[in-house]
Amino acid sequence: MTIWLDHHIERDGFQTETSGEMSASAILKLQAAGFSTEQVTALAELIDSQAATKADLEAAKHELGAQIGGVKSELGARIDSVKSDLEAAKHELGGRIDSLEHSLGSKIDAVDHRLDMKIARLDGEFALVKWMLGFTLAFEVALFYKLFLH
């Protein structure tokens, strides 16, 4: 049940007429708490001026929906832009990695070739040292034989 309050309020020499909608239980509770009829009326007017109507809520809902739609569109565009940038960076990095891989492969092959050449040279030098050692040993055996056994 809703009760309409119609009152004349005089304040500071000015008279105003008020009317507002309040439930009967709200009025009874306020009057039981010690509120005067003028106070109840003022409170009803305050609530009426501050409360939002269903139309206000629908308008706000529509406005927020439009803003959310705009934000979604902008966010989607930014996400697409970031994806595009990431794909470009991925492609560029892939090219750089391939280039570095080729360059490192060439350098590794060059080092491998130089090592093979050095190993071959050391094998030759080692063979020469073995022959020289064998000749020296044969010479010393012959000298030992000539000196002590003959």
If you average the pLDDT, what whole number results?
83
First-last Cα distance: 148 Å
Spans of at least 5 consecutive residues with low confidence: 1-20
Quote the beta fraction: 5-15%
State the major sheet: 2 strands, antiparallel
Structural class: alpha+beta
Instruction: Write down how many β-strands occur, each being a DSSP E stretch of 2 or more residues.
Output: 2
Order of strands in the sheet with the most strands? 1-2
Silhouette: rod-shaped
Query: Helix content range of the residues, please?
Result: over 70%
Measured on Cα atoms, how large is the radius of gyration?
52 Å
The helix tally amounts to: 3
Task: Give the SSE layout.
Blueprint: E1 2-11, E2 14-23, H1 24-32, H2 37-50, H3 54-149
Explain the overall architecture.
- This is DUF1640 domain-containing protein.
- The protein has about 150 residues and is of the alpha+beta class.
- It has a domain at about 1-50.
- The chain is about 80% helix and about 15% strand.
- It is built from three helices and two strands.
- It has a two-stranded antiparallel sheet with strand order 1-2.
- The termini are far apart.
Q: What is the structure about, briefly put?
A:
By secondary structure, this protein is an alpha+beta fold. It has 3 helices and 2 strands. A hairpin with a 2-residue loop joins strand 1 and strand 2.
